[in-house]
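Note to self: keep these together.
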Amino acid sequence: ALIPLLFIGSGIAIANGGGAPLSKTGVPALGGKSAEGTCYNCHNDYAVNNGATLSFIGAPAYYVAGATYDFSVQIASTQTAGFAGRVWAFELTAVNMADGTGAGTFTNVLETQIVGGNGQYATRQYLQASPDRSRTASPSVWQVQWTAPATGAGPVGFFASGIAGDGEGDNGGDWACSGSSIMEDVTAVEASTWGR
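Structure:
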């Protein structure tokens, strides 16, 4: 199942060849922590989600503490077809919706890197495209592997921002998108119904 996400920041990683600027996934203000920006903060020639989409493919709606889940992040755009050097990039984080702290852990699978947060976001992990994917047709898909917290943490929010860029090496002419998905914690339900 495809879950459409809003893309905000179509060229974040283009101007930062080593990956997106940290903490640009669009997490709202939670638990006294400020809201994060998105790719749109720098790549703002076009309205968010106007020309690019971000979707989570196969992301479950529920999780059980300690379990590992595989899904994908997909960026699609018809706007970049005419650019031979087109570029794709994203940044993703998972947070506890009650207090804004990082939730669970990501594993590097393929063409991604994990970067730890800092300051007020120090508990968060960020999964980023690495390197930025270039010269490939739409859509561009990255594998994600996430392990839920060892104990139930309540709802976990996944927030992502990304770009479908024209590949010209600057912040202009890129299409930004961002989006989110929530996984509900069913750990207590699993424990209470196990073996019945």
